[in-house]
Automatic annotation (TrEMBL):
It is an enzyme of class 7 (translocase). It holds the Pfam family PNTB_4TM. The transhydrogenation between NADH and NADP is coupled to respiration and ATP hydrolysis and functions as a proton pump across the membrane. The lineage of its organism: Bacteria, Bacillati, Actinomycetota, Actinomycetes, Propionibacteriales. The keyword Lyase does not apply. It is found in: Cell inner membrane. This is proton-translocating NAD(P)(+) transhydrogenase.
């Protein structure tokens, strides 16, 4: 019970700290910051695959597969956002008029 309260306290403090850190970042840096964070979530995908691979019961396997699915969506979404962001910085082609 006491360990659960300690873990809950750490979770709440880390969520508060994360909110405060992100709130201090200027608006123009939110997209690159989120894209980088989503790319780093590849580590979560590896962890989810490991958990799903070592599942002993059906519920563990289902939770592991859901985690793999969500981590994959998050990682792919990060790369899509990064690609769209980089497209914004490419020069546009001039349309030649006759």
């Amino acid at each position: 019970m006491a360990e659960g309260i300690v873990l809950l306290t750490i979770f709440v403090l880390s969520a508060f700290t994360g909110y405060e850190v992100i709130a201090k970042v200027s608006t123009i840096l939110h997209t690159p910051l989120m894209s980088g964070a989503n790319a780093i979530h590849g580590v979560i995908l590896v962890g989810a695959i490991l958990v799903a691979g070592r599942a002993d019961s059906a519920i563990e396997l289902i939770v592991g597969l859901v985690a793999v699915f969500l981590a994959t969506l998050n990682m792919v979404g990060g790369f899509v956002v990064t690609d769209r962001m980089l497209e914004m910085f490419k020069p546009r082609k001039q349309v030649e008029r006759p």
